[in-house]
Every structure is written in structure tokens, then in C-alpha cells.
Amino acid sequence: DGGDSFSDVSVGLPPYPVNCLAYRNGSNDEIYAGTDAGVYVWNTSINQWECFNQNLPITIVTKIDIGYCKNKITISTFGRGIWQAQLNPVNLNNELHITTNQTWSTKCLGTNVVIEPNATLTIDKFLSMAPGTKITVKPEANLVINGAKLTNTCENMWKGIIVEGGGLIDVDANGTQNAIIENAQYGIDLLTGSKYAIANCT
Description:
202 residues; mainly beta; 47% strand
């Protein structure tokens, strides 16, 4: 509602300031909070915060970074240096479903993407995908790549793009830019009945 109303989601947090937040892409809505008393993680199964100690110090946390390649969380602290801890593996069966028209400029994903019927996803700059993940274009769905670079997040390859029958992929159809799809196992896989308009692409 544009910020007219808010819900209290502070259950489990200590009575200290929250200095930073980090959302883990591809997870079950994991959010990490850097507080003046260490790191806390949002647990969706019980709808509250839990202490995330995992060999991290209980101190003032100033910044949190999620490293998708090594599956680690890195934090910077006030006076205690920089620390890292291992994260639990992300379930690659998780999927991000695109049900409305969207435009992405720069994104880093750790999960599969499914473009549902009657929705259009436009990528116009940069998208990195985690190893083993893919983009699926469903029937009557559209994927538009305008001069964007689609690549892998880490050293291992991502799967690529699957266009199902009735789905459409448009890669620089206007011919003004050069899209790049790289480090994918099969690049673009056009299934029977799929539609495409591809101009400048490597």
C-alpha cells in the first residue's frame, strides 16, 4: 500500500539496532540481518528471527554479503574485522515464477526462472545464473533479450533457456545490439512449436 501501513516482524531480534539486511536469492525467503549483537536470519517456517552464530562473532555487524559461488556469508564488523561462515545449500528445485510483465536490468539469481503464460520478461543489461539453473519460457509466454549478457554466476555452467511449444524468445530482433548467452550447457533449446526472433546474438 505504498508504505501506509506496516507489520511488526521483529520477533526474535535483540533489542539493538539493525544495521543491514541481505536477501538470499533462490532461498525460501532467507533474510539475514546484521545487528549490534551479531547476525540473525529470518525463519519462514516459524515467522521469526533466529540467531545465526555459525562461528561468527556476537558484535556490531556493518555489512553482509552473500557469496553464491562458495555458498558463504561474509560480514564486516565494527572493530572485529571481516568474517565468513558456510551457508546451507540452496534447493535448486525452487523456482521464481514470472506472472506479470517485468523488465530486469542487472540481476544475480540462484534459482530457476519460469515465465508463465501471458507474461513477458525483458532482460536489457546483465543476468547471472547459478550453476545448474535454467530459464523456462512457457506456452504463450515471452522472453525478450535486448543486448543483454546472460552468463553463469560461478565457474560451473548454468543450463540455459528452454522455450516450450507456443513460447516466444526475442533476441535483439530489432538488430541494434548484440546479446551474449554464454557458459550455458545448451544456450537456447527450442522445443517443437516454439517461436523465435533472433538477430544479433553470440
